[in-house]
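Risk register update: the risk of archive-format incompatibility is retired. Evidence:
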Amino acid sequence: MPLLPSPPFNRLCAKAERAFYEVVVVNQVAIPKAAIFTGFCSDEKVAPRIEISAHGGPEEPIRSGNYKLRVTITVVGSADIDEDPLLIEQVKAKDLHEVNVGTVFDILAVAQVNDWLNRAVPEFYVFSWLAVDIDHHVEGRTFRDTIVLEVYCCGAAIVPEVPLVGSGSPETPPG
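Archived output:
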């Protein structure tokens, strides 16, 4: 049996994390905005925050360069948020957390999210994704809502053979 090259998980996972980061950052609506971190090293950060991490999965079909990654988006809130002296009306911690969670879910529900992800990072293309797990729990005075996505993607720019519009250059295919 021939040896297969190691999957480019590190680079592809970093691109997946960055693409989801860019999409969430651009569409965030809560005031104050949650800090957003990528990777698995965000445990020591303050709340409110959004953590985006990815890890590798199987190549499907084999030798295609297409992978199913697991992307985990965790929204972390705290019952002990600091009051902002610039806000006339203070936001309650639980309400702020619910807005941050709602924002992430609303972003993922938008029909154009694949197109946004495909345009966020060069040489990264999402064919599809599927929510495989959703969790909500409270750890002491910390709220945690997690959504795990199975993202079918590749580390290449996908360009259709025929331009989608007019006779100009090819455009990114719709998601």
